[in-house]
Automatic annotation (TrEMBL):
Pfam families: acVLRF1. This is Peptide chain release factor subunit 1. It comes from Geodia barretti. InterPro entries: eFR1_2_sf, VLRF1. Residues 51-182 form the Actinobacteria/chloroflexi VLRF1 release factor domain. It comes from the Eukaryota.
Amino acid sequence: MLLLKSDTGLVAFRQVERVLAIVPPFPLTEQAASEGWNAGPLLDMLTTDYTVGVVLLRLGRYLVAVFRGTEPVVTKTDTRYVKGKHHAGGTSQLRFKRIREGQMRKLFDEACGVVGSRFEPHDREMDYILLGGEKLTLSGFMKVCPYLQRRQKLILDRRLNIRDPKHDTLETVAGMLRQSRVWAVGQ
C-alpha cells in the first residue's frame, strides 16, 4: 500500500475490520493529533472559517481570490493572450518560442501584481494559500512572483483542480476549499 504524503496530516478511524483514512483540507494542529481517537478536532477544523488566498493560473487566464470560509471577499479574473504550441522547425520556431515566453512572462507579472494587491490587505489574517493549474505553469509562476515566494509557508501542497479559472468557477472553488480525501479500507 502506498504511504500518503500530506502537509495537512492524516486522520484514521478504525472500527473492527474497517479503517477510514482521511486527508483533511487544512493542517491539523499538534494538539489535535495528540488527542487520540477524538473526531472533535477534525470536525472543528472542517467548520472553521479560515481566510484562504486562491490563485488559479493557466496560460492565458488567471483567477485570484481571498475567501473567508466559503465566501469570496475579494476576486479578480483576467485574460492575457499566450500563443499555443508551434510544431514547425528552424528559425521561425525559435522566434515563436521567444514571443511565447515573453507573453508568458507578461501574464505571470500581471498575475503576480494582482496577487499582491488583492492579498496584501488580508496579510495578517491569511491562514493558507491554495494554488490551482498545470504544474509546470505554476512552477514558472512561483519563480517570478516574489509575493508568493515570501509567503511560501502559507502555501499548501494540494492543488485545486480547476481547468478554466474564470469568475463562473468561484462557487466551485468555494466548495473545494473544505474537500478532504477519504479512503475506506477493509470490509
